Amino acid sequence: MEAKLHHKRPKHLNLLKIKQPLPAVVSILHRISGALLFFPGIPLLLCGLQMLLQSSQSFEVLQDYLRNPVIKLALLLPLWFFLHHLCAGIRHVLLDLQIGIVLAQARTSSKLVLAAGFLLTALIGWQLW
């Protein structure tokens, strides 16, 4: 019996071929969005703040950058990072409080986090355009 089980085990584990459940995908996206908010997000935010406060000429340059439709479109991605990270963080806090820990509820809350992230990004993006 052991010999039969031993031959069926994979020799290597390819994580790209394994289909993750939706709560795992939301959790992975939460970690990725947090990392991307930290490294490129904070330096870019500080650079924009410096341009905002340095002089009136640099403020006008920053306004010109932000009026560009390509830049506006590119800023939707960090906006989604932030909103997804916020919604998934609230979900994780609720899970830590033992709320929504049943599998069906966890799947539903994962769907809500994804939908809320995209919906809030679309609403705020529409408002900014």
TrEMBL record:
GO terms for cellular component: plasma membrane. Belongs to the cytochrome b560 family. Heme binds at residue 85. Keywords: Heme, Iron, Membrane, Metal-binding, Transmembrane, Transmembrane helix. The keyword Membrane applies. CDD domains: SQR_TypeC_SdhC. One of its GO terms (molecular function) is metal ion binding. Its main location: membrane. The keyword Nuclease does not apply. Its cofactor is heme. Pfam families: Sdh_cyt (PF01127). The heme is bound between the two transmembrane subunits. Membrane-anchoring subunit of succinate dehydrogenase (SDH). Gene3D superfamilies: Fumarate reductase/succinate dehydrogenase, transmembrane subunit. It comes from the Bacteria. The lineage of its organism: Bacteria, Pseudomonadati, Pseudomonadota, Betaproteobacteria, Nitrosomonadales. This is Succinate dehydrogenase cytochrome b556 subunit. It comes from Nitrosomonas oligotropha. NCBIfam families: succ_dehyd_cytB (TIGR02970).
